[in-house]
């Protein structure tokens, strides 16, 4: 009967570990999260023995580096896209044989992907090859000059009436908390999904992420709270002093896939597809239309460059009523 490696708790490190294929993996301090991570590792297929110059082997090296030197969510982001690409090419395809058309054929086979998804998929493979070139594993990246698809723009705006309809179809408190907090703060979905009690500064009605945990790694990220979002955060801090605050009805942290499944269910009821990012997008639109200065909006949203508003929300220039009102204010 086969024996499987089991996680153990290392007191001196205050973390769970498991030994897989001759390598120790740190599973973190939380037992529940550690065992979920353990099952994820066990579900991974063992890597094939491939020539070192094969594309999958080079990508494996890149993913190993990501796992050791980047945040877990960054590693998982690259892993999902790189694995999807590797599954479409011969396992022995050499780097010298890799051509831009391999990327083009891959994304063309997925017409259901949004422009941003296609661009990110190509960006992940280009990043892996560029890394391999800089590390000296390959002489040059064969896809460095591949022309990526244009970045899509977020056009969906959720108005108050639509948001109320979404809440009306959401029975459980756990998902309502997630929706209301995103709607009221305009925070990035990932910022809400991974916020913990240690980030909460209830006395000043805000969340504070240290620079090391932010998107840019340069400055702390502050998300301000008001109204119901502040009450929700206070309640969840008391309920979950450790680990992510926002959890589903089973007490498990919300994941991107779980949130998307809930929105898929709402689509069947409401006849329209929504997402958490649409709520952030709608927050920015409302703030600008209500007269909040663009620089202030950019700061509240966590943009390092205020010009991101013009690049990401160009539909405001197509709102005649809003522009007429702005003109009236400008010449008053």
Q: How would you characterize the overall build of this protein?
A:
- This protein has helices at 31-43, 55-69, 72-86, 100-108, 115-135, 160-168, 173-185, 189-193, 227-239, 256-270, 276-289, 294-301, 307-312, 320-331; strands at residues 8-10, 15-20, 23-28, 200-201, 206-209, 221-224.
- Helix 3 crosses helix 5 (115-135) and helix 7 runs parallel beside helix 11.
- The strands form two sheets. Strands 1-2-3 form a three-stranded antiparallel sheet, with helices on one face. A three-stranded antiparallel sheet has the order 4-5-6, with helices on one face.
- It has three domains: 1-46, no CATH class; 47-152, Tyrosine recombinase, N-terminal domain (DNA polymerase, domain 1), CATH 1.10.150; 160-331, Intergrase catalytic core (hpI Integrase, Chain A).
- The mean pLDDT is 85.
- The protein is built from 14 helices and six strands.
- 51% of the residues lie in helices and 8% in strands.
- The chain has 332 residues and is mainly α.
- A hairpin with a 2-residue loop joins strand 2 and strand 3.
Quick description:
With 332 residues, the protein is mainly alpha-helical. It has helices at residues 31-43, 55-69, 72-86, 100-108, 115-135, 160-168, 173-185, 189-193, 227-239, 256-270, 276-289, 294-301, 307-312, 320-331, and strands spanning 8-10, 15-20, 23-28, 200-201, 206-209, 221-224. It folds into three domains: 1-46, no CATH class; 47-152, Tyrosine recombinase, N-terminal domain (DNA polymerase, domain 1); 160-331, Intergrase catalytic core (hpI Integrase, Chain A).
């Amino acid at each position: 009967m086969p024996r499987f490696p089991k996680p153990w708790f290392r007191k001196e490190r205050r973390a769970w570990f498991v030994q897989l294929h001759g390598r120790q993996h740190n599973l973190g301090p939380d037992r529940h999260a550690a065992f979920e991570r353990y099952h994820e590792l066990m579900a991974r297929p063992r890597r094939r023995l491939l020539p070192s110059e094969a594309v999958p082997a080079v990508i494996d090296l890149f993913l190993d580096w990501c796992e050791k030197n980047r945040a877990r969510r960054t590693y998982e982001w690259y892993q999902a896209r790189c694995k999807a690409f590797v599954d479409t090419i011969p396992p022995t395809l050499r780097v010298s044989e890799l051509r831009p058309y391999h990327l083009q054929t891959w994304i063309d086979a997925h017409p259901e992907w949004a422009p941003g998804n296609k661009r990110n998929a190509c960006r992940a493979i280009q990043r892996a090859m560029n890394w391999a070139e800089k590390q000296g594993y390959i002489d040059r990246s064969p896809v460095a000059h591949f022309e990526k698809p244009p970045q899509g723009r977020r056009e969906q705006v959720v108005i108050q009436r639509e948001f109320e309809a979404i809440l009306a179809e959401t029975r459980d408190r756990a998902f309502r908390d997630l929706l209301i907090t995103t709607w009221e703060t305009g925070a990035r979905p990932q910022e809400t999904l991974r916020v913990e009690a240690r980030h909460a500064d209830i006395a000043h009605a805000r969340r504070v992420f240290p620079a090391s945990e932010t998107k840019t790694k340069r400055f702390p990220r502050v998300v301000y709270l008001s109204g119901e979002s502040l009450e929700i955060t206070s309640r969840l801090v008391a309920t979950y002093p450790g680990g992510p605050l926002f959890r589903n009805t089973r007490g498990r942290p919300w994941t991107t896939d779980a949130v998307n499944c809930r929105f898929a269910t709402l689509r069947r009821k409401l006849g329209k597809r929504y997402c958490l990012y649409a709520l952030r997008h709608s927050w920015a639109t409302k703030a600008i239309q209500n007269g909040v200065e663009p620089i202030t909006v950019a700061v509240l949203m966590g943009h390092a460059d205020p010009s991101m508003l013009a690049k990401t929300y160009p539909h405001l220039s197509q709102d005649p009523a809003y522009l007429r009102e702005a003109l009236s204010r400008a010449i008053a």
